[in-house]
Write a structure and sequence with these properties.
0% strand; globular
Length: 225
């Protein structure tokens, strides 16, 4: 029941953001954010809705026309936006990998979690490249390589930290709490991922903050001024 409740709450929170953006007219100037915010809500629930209303909605042209320039961002906003971007990579990568691994029944010596971990990481990096590609100013092949370089330089450390924490968390829960391996048709499987992503968010905070303060990570697209 708790798993179902958190999944419904996360889905409802994501729906609130989507409705406000596409029906309420608060479209984001950086289109990738129209995906990042709902994905963040899938695991952070109402907390993501609050962050969106505080930092996301004021970036929309409609909000600016009504209220002028948005409030100045706090110092930690850049870290939060960077983490939301990278966690969106990890979340979408996990969903895609889970569908492929379990849909095709891929396993290694009867072990499904190991290929799932590999798929999650590869999927997260692939989604990150797609996100960077969507915001790159270059054209043609240069745009692809620029996106790959941006992910390798600015996102890979954060994504790796999140994925490592997520994998450790899943292993602990699978071996210490549940006698049998969970599958995607069980809501507890996704509830575990929700908690793991939240833990990963805070675990990757130091790495992301370090990248920003050292000037290695540039301003994340969609970060409020």
């Amino acid at each position: 029941m708790l798993s179902w409740a958190t999944l419904v709450l996360g889905s409802a929170s994501a729906a609130v953001i989507v409705v406000d953006s596409f029906i309420g007219g608060h479209r984001q100037p950086v289109k990738v954010m129209e995906l990042v915010w709902p994905v963040t809500a899938l695991y952070f629930g109402p907390a993501a809705v609050m962050a969106y209303r505080k930092w996301g909605r004021p970036q929309s042209p409609r909000w600016r026309q009504r209220y002028g320039n948005p409030p100045k961002k706090p110092r930690h906003a850049a870290v939060v936006f960077g983490l939301c971007h990278c966690l969106a990579h990890c979340t979408l990568g996990a969903i895609i990998a889970t569908v492929i691994i379990f849909g095709l029944r891929i396993d290694t010596a009867g072990e499904t979690l190991r290929p799932l971990y590999i798929g999650d990481f590869v999927g997260a990096v692939a989604v990150g490249v797609a996100f960077r590609y969507a915001t790159e100013a270059h054209t043609g092949g240069r745009r692809v390589w620029a996106a790959i370089r941006s992910v390798a330089r600015e996102d890979l450390l954060t994504v790796s930290a999140v994925e490592l924490v997520l994998f450790i968390w899943i292993e602990l829960v699978e071996h210490l709490v549940f006698p049998e391996a969970l599958r995607p048709n069980n809501p507890v499987f996704w509830f575990i991922h929700q908690i793991g992503l939240i833990i990963g968010f805070f675990a990757a905070w130091p790495a992301t903050s370090w990248l920003i303060h050292r000037g290695i990570r540039g301003e994340t697209p969609g970060t409020p001024p």
